[in-house]
User: What shape does this take?
Amino acid sequence: MIQSILSKIAEGQRFLVTSHEGPDGDAIGSTLAFALLLREMGKDVVAFNGDGVPQDFAFLPGAETLVRELGDESGFDTGFVLDAGELKRAGNDLGERCKSLVNIDHHPYSESFGEINFVDEEASATGVLIYRIAKAAGHPISEAVALCIYTAILSDTGSFRYSNSNPEAFRVAAEMVEVGVDPWTVASGLYESQDEKRLNLLARALSTLTLSSCRRYASVSVTLGMMEEVGAGAEFTDGFVNYPRSIRGVEVALFFRQIESDAYKIGFRSKGRINVGSLAHDLGGGGHHNAAGAVVRGSLEDVRNTVFSRLLVLLD
Ligand SMILES: [Mn+2]
Assistant: This one.
């Protein structure tokens, strides 16, 4: 698998590297790591994400090179689509812009949209897969690439707290620190550089906190009105779902975010055996055992009732 990716790299010169919309630390970290790696190999690379680099990750090397628009750019030898789960989350038109697509991912339901599909559910982050490719290529990992890979792993493992924090995650992270990554630089960039708007929005979200009567699931929600009140967009809501999850005894946390007058994006987090990936999948979304998402149409009350009734079946 990796050998066929190395052949694609060797045969091509001009590459597109991209990830899913609304990128998280793994999406941005792996995109920038791979783009930097390919450039170090002498390739021409366009790093693309329609939503750009979230403020939390603006400190990453190469962040300034990521473009938000592809315009009429096409004819890429290969488009590498990272951490996307499905092609539509990265862009349905990528196939027309690239002579071939390669899917590099760790999502369990990752679509086989690539000519090559390098998918490993056991990998803690897509950043780990980029590490494996760099190693297989025999390419020394630069400090810039290491910083991006470390950030990808730190982000997708919840700072090594989630159950995907496997030995490989620690091993690769340790190697990145040996290469020169300063953990505090990353931690302060991710967790100690918040915009006060985020806390204003969080205060409103926490005021909606509800805990089920069985005390096994809890939720918070954010409406378009709240975002307007504090002048903050959806990019400020990352991590809100962690607050209901942090309640003792809660197994599943939900975050309802209004995206249209009658549509809500739901983020699911599971602390244990409940597979929220399958729940989200049933609702038309996707994700992992412990973290998933879906969009459900209706009023907030209807959406909550729909989701909670399905969740109760799972909890039984
Ligand atoms: Mn990921």
Notes: The first helix runs from residue 2 to 11.
